[in-house]
Amino acid sequence: MRILASLKVALRALRTNKMRSFLTMLGIIIGVGAVIVMVAIGTGATEMISQQIASMGSNLIMVLPGATTSGGARMGLGTVSTLTSDDARAIKEECPAVKEVAPIWGGVTQVVYGNQNWNTGVNGTTPAFFSVREWPMADGRLFTEQEVTGAVKVAVVGQSVVDNLFGSENPLGQIIRIKKVPFTVIGVLDRKGQSARGDDQDDVVYIPLTTSQKKVFGSTLPRTVRIILVQAQDLTRMAEAENQVNDLLKQRHRTQPGQLADFTVRNLTEIMATAEQSAKIMSLLLGSIALVSLLVGGIGIMNIMLVSVTERTREIGIRMAVGARSRDILFQFLTESIVLSLVGGLIGIGLGIIGSKVMAYFTEWSIVISYSALLMSFSFSAAVGIFFGFYPARKAARLNPIEALRYE
Amino acid sequence: MASLIQVTDLCKTYQVGEIAIQAICGVTLNIDKGEFVSIMGSSGSGKSTFMNILGCLDIPNQGSYYLEGTSIESLGRDDLAQIRNQKIGFVFQGFNLLSRTSALENVELPLIYSAVSSRERRRKALEALQAVGLSGREGHHTNQLSGGQQQRVAIARALVNQPAIILADEPTGNLDTKTSLEIMQLLTRLNEDQKMTVVIVTHEPDIATFTRRTIFFRDGQVVEDRALPGGGKRS
């Protein structure tokens, strides 16, 4: 019996029981749809986290001023400024596993341009910061080491600041006032988007570190910094760099053994990698739950096909009597279950794509429909059709023609 | 010349649980090409088992069966299916047509399993329907047809592959007297005009009178094999 002929027979049989065929398919539809939506959500989440990792800058270690004890009460991290520009320079010079160092000193304050004002983060740093964060310029230039040394009043602004302060004007060469100190805008940073915590990373102004320390955010101790970003030589030397920074700073700060260090070293990449890992596990979990529902759909197909074989025992007997071989019968019922699962799979893919889009629209999550997931779920549903259709089809093919003919 | 059907010392035993039931035993007979034979016997006499073996639906435990010189008992399932398809046309008491399917498609059914192109299938099926007097009814679904018409469709289906033999198991069992007569006339005509070998199983002596030879079964054995020299009842 040719494929076309058996396809015709299968379609006719499925049409005879429209409702039943549809309900059987529903299992596969839901299964395939669920796989696609779940994988889309998982892939989206993983991708979002990778993007955030990339936007943080790679191989990053953060050095924060530590908690100190004041009259027995332990203060929170960063409450006391214990880190200085000199610490930053020492890290750069004395730790071989460290590639770059970027100290930061700044705060949140009002920035004024013409009759516009905007409250934003103003950070003093060194040019190395932008390479550590892997943050390119959109326009203009960075401030130089000389400008840092000379405490020149120049500023590099983020895209959100441009949007809020300048509107459609070109910010380059304009004068902005930060705490009444005039600065010349010399550069505009590329858009970086949200951070892992959801902050707007573009809502920021960068000025030379020394300018920040001396002219804008004065500190009780000179040359203090709020944070030191440290970039390791590469990912494999992260731990090494961390240890070196720790040892160096303990030595510089004269921390006695057993005494609480007045600084903290944090490995950001590790945290982000963990987050990425957990997102991957999550998507794997979601995917496997969806696969289970596809499996349940397959069992539904098997169930209905078994009923169908029993119901049509007489028909099978007639076909055998007029010369159908076992494989003809096997093929006929297998075709039916494959048609069921493939049509269900196609509808499921359609619904899955629509579902993902709807999900993305309402939740504003980043959702990525992967073609490999489409292909995988489709071929999986085909496999389900063959696998779960085989047993009933074989049962049909093995019927004894005499008994099948006598079946009422 | 070898007979169309050559059966020697045929036995068939069914195992029902612990008990072995001997349906037929020691049946030996020949049926030649072009014969019109009826098989009679009470229920349980083994005539249906014999028909199933003749029709290659079942294989004997013992003895030999040659159909057109081919030994049947050594064949596998698929080979038997092939023989049923090519050499045997079945007509059943309960018609055994596919419901919700047109008469034409029912008649085409054996051809689907014998690699015939769809155009050729249609032509042969229409021809067979015409032969049983059902031209113009090919599009009707079988459940829209009367019992007699359904049995005609079944006969057309049996004919369509030009088999060596038509086996009819109580072909008139579900029909009234008048329709039974028509069906028997149709079978007689096929036997006379197309030289088709026809074997029918019946328990009605009236029906058996149409044939030219009657074989009586009792307790799984042939008790009488009577040829009617007159050539059966003509109408």
Task: Give your account of this protein's structure.
The complex is a heterodimer of chains A (408) and B (235). Chain A has 408 residues and is an alpha+beta fold. Chain A has two domains: 175 residues, no CATH class; 181 residues, no CATH class. Chain A has 13 helices and 14 strands. In chain A, helix 1 packs across helix 11 and helix 9 packs parallel to helix 12. The model of chain A has no long low-confidence stretch (mean pLDDT 85). Chain B starts with a strand and ends in an 8-residue tail after the last strand. Classes of the chains: A alpha+beta (408), B alpha/beta (235). The interface between A and B is medium-sized, with 22 and 27 residues.
The proportion of strand residues of chain A reads: 15-25%
Low-confidence stretches of chain A: none
**Arithmetic mean pLDDT of chain A:** 85
- What is the chain-wise order of helices and strands of chain A? HHEEEEHEEHEHEHEEEHEEHEHHHHH
Largest interface: chains, residues each: A-B, 22 and 27 residues
**Mind summarizing the main beta sheet of chain A?**
6 strands, mixed, barrel
Keywords:
heterodimer, A: 408 residues, alpha+beta, 2 domains, 6-stranded mixed β-barrel, two-stranded antiparallel ribbon, elongated, B: 235 residues, alpha/beta, Rossmann fold, 6-stranded mixed beta sheet, 4-stranded antiparallel beta sheet, 7 helices, 33% helix, globular
